[in-house]
Specification:
Length: 391
């Protein structure tokens, strides 16, 4: 008999009833150290007092009005995001998937309005993840996500990660946009080298294609800059944001330049919930905390220390781990044993990590995790690895 919850997830036999910072307390009282943070969502930890206050204050006044009316908190969050980034304008969504949908629509509408109605092709990359809607799985293109769900949305060209020649050949006067994650998340924490992102920006400029960055996982301070593309010193035309921006409240956004967004006039897009007062009250507080340069420099300091300890961990368990990779507090440990075994061995040490593609386990801790908790996570990973070591 089918479970009453549609069984699309292989869930761990764990349930939590409370959270405190980087800790989750299970229904039996056991404390788990959370290095997954709801897949890079709880960027400021669980039950963060500043976010709880922002949420409850708003909850007592007004939850939802629809976008038929002005929403002051949405306006304030859009202003904060445009002030801090390349963007001139923002549309709010409830998820990363919805941000992907708008990013695709926006790029195509731009070319349609520019008199190039057949300039619809969008270039994407192997290992990508942009969400689970038909548009987003068509964009990513992997058989694992698309098989059985056809027909797919047409107009995507899928290239190998790092295929520079293929990219040059694929960029034609039919290319509307290139869509890429500056650091692939689900694909196994694969950072795009800065020079590649700069080269991609140049190629887009030469051919006119729009550059869409999916910063749903790597954005909002995760890599030690507010957005990951800042490391390369370039800016996109369109950017997708979600996950960390809501700190656990469902919130996403598409940020764009005035030019890229020029086709999105009244009536061309919408969302009942997107950017509602409750979500934006939380998003504003998250943005206020994370966009602070002092906060981001702490993320970088913590990340450097953690990285060093993890290099040591890999060196002491060469039969379990192959390498550490990633950027900031978006870290992948490539495993030599099945990554799901490492995640399970972590559970036994009351440590939560997240599996990713390419046989990686992901560490995506809250960005404000205390140093002692990060050190404790390495200790627990060390114990977990010891239980898997063949030697
Ligand atoms: C999680 C994720 C998405 C999809 O976001 P949802 O909120 O699950 O719809 C899209 N892109 C990237 C890079 C992601 O990590």
């Amino acid at each position: 008999m089918i479970p009453s919850v549609l069984p699309t997830y292989a869930r761990a036999p764990l349930a939590f009833e409370r959270g405190e910072g980087s800790w989750l307390i299970a229904t039996d009282g056991t404390r788990y150290l959370d290095m997954g943070a709801g897949i890079a969502v709880n960027a400021l930890g669980h039950a963060n007092p500043a976010l709880v206050a922002a949420l409850t204050e708003q909850a007592g006044r007004l939850w939802h009005t629809s976008n038929l009316y002005q929403i002051p908190a949405q306006q304030a969050l859009a202003d904060a995001l445009t002030d801090a980034t390349f963007a001139d304008t923002v549309f709010f969504t409830n998820s990363g998937t919805e941000a992907a949908e708008l990013a695709i629509k926006m790029a195509r509408k731009y070319w349609y309005d520019a008199g190039n109605a057949d300039r619809t092709e969008i270039i994407t990359f192997e290992g990508a993840f942009h969400g689970r809607s038909t548009g987003a799985i068509s964009a990513a293109g992997s058989e694992k996500m698309t098989k059985g769900f056809g027909p797919m949305l047409p107009g995507f060209t899928h290239l190998e990660w790092g295929d520079h020649d293929g990219l040059r050949a694929a960029l034609t006067n039919r290319t509307a946009a290139v869509l890429i994650e500056p650091v692939q998340g689900e694909g196994g924490i694969r950072p795009l080298p800065d020079q590649c992102l700069r080269g991609l920006r140049d190629l887009c400029d030469q051919t006119g294609a729009l550059l869409i960055l999916d910063e749903v996982q790597c954005g909002m301070g995760r890599t030690g800059r507010l957005f990951a593309h800042e490391w390369a010193g370039i800016t996109p035309d369109i950017m997708m944001v979600a996950k960390g921006i809501g700190g656990g409240f469902p919130l996403g956004a598409v940020l764009a330049t005035e030019r890229a967004a020029s086709g999105m006039t009244t009536g061309t897009h919408g969302s009942t919930y997107g950017g509602n007062p409750l979500a934006c009250a939380v998003g504003l507080k998250v943005m206020e905390i994370i966009a602070d340069p002092a906060f981001l420099s702490e993320v970088n300091r913590k990340a450097a220390r953690l990285r060093q300890s993890l290099e040591g961990l890999v060196a002491s368990h060469p039969d379990v781990f192959e390498e550490v990779r990633g950027l900031g507090l978006m870290i992948g440990l490539k495993c030599r044993v099945p990554n799901t075994d490492v995640v399970k061995a972590g559970y036994a040490q009351h440590l939560l990590t997240v599996p990713g593609g390419d046989n990686v386990i992901r560490l995506l801790p809250p960005l404000n995790t205390p140093d002692a908790d990060l050190a404790e996570a390495v200790t627990r990973l060390d114990r977990a690895a010891a239980t898997l070591s063949s030697s």
